[in-house]
Specification:
The complex is a heterodimer of chains A (110) and B (111). Chain A has strands spanning 4-7, 10-13, 19-25, 31-38, 42-49, 56-57, 64-67, 73-78, 87-94, 99-101, 105-109. Chain A has 110 residues and is mainly beta. The chains are: A mainly beta (110), B mainly beta (111).
Chain lengths: 110, 111
C-alpha cells in the first residue's frame, strides 16, 4: 500500500496563478483532510470531507476550494494564489481517530 | 485561546536524557489524546494514543494525561538522536472525525 500520496511535492507560483494539489489514498478511508503548516502555527485545517461527494470548511478555508469526486481522491485548488498562501500543505485520511498523512507539498507564491 | 496549547520550543537535550513534552487543553469534552511525531520535511505519524487519565507506556515512550488539570505529557527515556523531530499533541473533537492539533514542540537530541 502506498498510503497517502500528494502531487506535486514542490511548486512555485506567481501571484494570481492557479493550481490544484492532488491527494490520493488507497486505504479506503471515508474521511480526508487538507491542512497547511506554517512555522509557529501548527497544522491548520483548510477543508475536509466525510465521504465521497461531500466537503466542508475548516479553520482557514478562504482562498481555497476542494472537491471529492472519488472516494480515494481529494483535490485542493487555489484559484488566485497570494503570497500568504506560501506554506507546506498536508493531506490526511482517516477511518476513525488516527489520521494518516501524506509527505506534503511545499508551495511558494512569489 | 487555542483548544490545545503547546510550547513550540525548540528543546535541546543531550543523548540519554529524559525528555518531557507537555500540552494543555481547554475542552473538558476531550476524551482521547494522541501524540504525533513529525520528522523534518515529512508528514506527521501517530506515535501514541491514550483514552483516559493515567499513563500509557510503549518502549521508551510514556504518555500521561491528567484530566483534572487538563495536562498532557509525553516522556522519552534514554533519548536518542533519532528522536529529533517535532512532536504534536492532538485530540479529536467531540464529533470524532476532526482533530485539534497543538503547534508542535521541536526536539533536538545531541549525540
Amino acid at each position: 500500500n502506498a498510503g497517502v500520496t500528494q502531487t506535486p511535492k514542490f511548486r512555485v507560483l506567481k501571484t494570481g496563478q492557479s493550481m490544484t494539489l492532488l491527494c490520493a489514498q488507497d486505504m479506503n478511508h471515508e474521511y480526508m483532510y487538507w491542512y497547511r503548516q506554517d512555522p509557529g502555527m501548527g497544522l491548520r485545517l483548510i477543508h475536509y470531507s466525510v465521504g465521497e461527494g461531500t466537503t466542508a470548511k475548516g479553520e482557514v478555508p478562504d482562498g481555497y476550494n476542494v472537491s471529492r469526486l472519488k472516494k480515494q481522491n481529494f483535490l485542493l485548488g487555489l484559484e488566485s494564489a497570494a503570497p500568504s498562501q506560501t506554506s507546506v500543505y498536508f493531506c490526511a485520511s482517516s477511518l476513525s481517530n488516527e489520521q494518516f498523512f501524506g509527505p506534503g507539498t511545499r508551495l511558494t507564491v512569489l | 485561546q487555542k483548544e490545545v496549547e503547546q510550547d513550540p520550543g525548540p528543546l535541546s537535550v543531550p543523548e540519554g536524557a529524559i525528555v518531557s513534552l507537555n500540552c494543555t487543553y481547554s475542552n473538558s469534552a476531550f476524551q482521547y489524546f494522541m501524540w504525533y511525531r513529525q520528522y523534518s520535511r515529512k508528514g506527521p505519524e501517530l506515535l501514541m494514543y491514550t483514552y483516559s487519565s493515567g499513563n500509557k507506556e510503549d518502549g521508551r515512550f510514556t504518555a500521561q494525561v491528567d484530566k483534572s488539570s487538563k495536562y498532557i505529557s509525553l516522556f522519552i527515556r534514554d533519548s536518542q538522536p533519532s528522536d529529533s523531530a517535532t512532536y504534536l499533541c492532538a485530540s479529536p473533537n467531540t464529533g470524532g472525525f476532526k482533530t485539534i492539533f497543538g503547534a508542535g514542540t521541536r526536539l533536538f537530541v545531541k549525540a
